[in-house]
Design goal:
Elements lengths: L5 E16 L1 H7 L5 E2 L1 E2 L2 E16 L8 E16 L2 E13 L2 H6 L9 E2 L1 E6 L3 E8 L2 E9 L11 H9 L3 E5 L6 E7 L6 E10 H4 L6 E17 L1
Parallel strand pairs: 6-7, 6-11
Antiparallel strand pairs: 1-4, 1-14, 2-5, 3-4, 4-5, 5-6, 8-9, 9-10, 10-13, 11-12, 12-14, 13-14
Length: 229
C-alpha cells in the first residue's frame, strides 16, 4: 500500500529566481531518466525560496501550524511516462530553517531537507534573504515591480504558466539513489514580476564560467498550498 504524505501551509512569499543554464552542463547534472527542458536552447534552472507558515498535516483544520524558511536549487526537466512526455523539476537539494522537515523529510514530511540558517529582511515589496548551510550559501535581494526582463519568457504570464506546469519536483531519497516525487499545488495562483538587486548562489557560481546566467525573477505571495509525496 502506498502511503501519501502531505501537508498544507500558507505561502507568505515565494521567490522564483531563474538562470539560463548551458544544456550540456545541465545534462551532466541530472540522474538517468530525466532530461533538461529546453527553452530556446537553454536549460532553465534556479532557486525557489519559500517562506511558509501554518504548516500542518492535511487532515488538521484551523489556524494552528508551524513556520519555516526554505530554499531549493532546481532545474526544469522532462521525462517519459507510458509514452507521454511529462514535465516538472529536479531538485538538487532542499534546505530548511525548521527542525521538522529536516528530521521527518522523506518519511512523514514530503521531501528530504537539510538544515540551514536563514536571515530574512522583508518590507512591503522588497525581500532580502540569505541562507547558509554546510557547503552551500545563497543571498538574494529582490524587489517586486519595476521593469521585468527575461530572455527565457516573453511576459510574466508566460513565466507563470511555465512554473505552474512544473509542479512535480523529483529529488533523491535518503538512500541517495532512488527518486521521490513531491507535488506542490495551490487553489490560487498569482505571479508578480520583480527585479533583482543582487544575487549570489554558491551552487550556480561553482559551475563552469558562463554556464549559468541569471535570467529573471518572479514572486508569489499570500497563497494556500498543499505538498504531497
Amino acid at each position: 500500500m502506498t502511503i501519501v504524505r502531505g501537508v498544507q501551509a500558507r505561502l507568505r512569499r515565494r521567490l522564483l529566481l531563474s538562470y539560463r543554464l548551458d544544456a550540456d552542463v545541465a545534462r551532466g547534472l541530472l540522474p538517468d531518466g530525466l532530461r533538461p527542458l529546453l527553452v530556446d536552447g537553454h536549460a532553465v534552472a534556479g532557486v525557489c525560496v519559500l517562506g511558509l507558515e501554518s504548516i500542518r498535516p492535511r487532515w488538521v483544520h484551523g489556524r494552528w501550524g508551524l513556520r519555516s524558511e526554505n530554499a531549493a536549487h532546481r532545474i526544469a526537466v522532462e521525462w517519459d511516462d507510458e509514452g507521454e512526455r511529462r514535465r516538472g523539476v529536479y531538485i538538487f537539494e532542499r534546505h530548511s530553517s525548521a527542525w521538522f522537515p529536516v528530521l521527518f523529510g522523506g518519511r512523514a514530511f514530503p521531501g528530504v531537507h537539510r538544515k540551514a540558517r536563514f536571515r530574512v529582511d522583508e518590507s512591503k515589496d522588497r525581500y532580502a534573504v540569505t541562507m547558509d548551510a554546510d557547503g552551500e550559501s545563497l543571498a538574494a535581494d529582490v524587489e517586486v515591480g519595476g521593469e521585468w526582463k527575461s530572455e527565457l519568457f516573453p511576459t510574466v504570464e508566460d513565466a507563470s504558466e511555465f512554473y505552474r506546469s512544473g509542479l512535480v519536483g523529483w529529488s533523491r531519497r535518503h538512500d541517495g539513489v532512488s527518486l521521490e516525487p513531491v507535488t506542490l499545488t495551490s487553489t490560487a495562483w498569482t505571479v508578480e514580476g520583480a527585479h533583482l538587486r543582487s544575487l549570489r548562489s554558491s551552487f550556480f557560481d561553482a559551475l563552469p564560467e558562463g554556464a549559468a546566467v541569471f535570467d529573471s525573477v518572479v514572486v508569489m505571495r499570500d497563497l494556500p498550498i498543499v505538498m504531497t509525496a
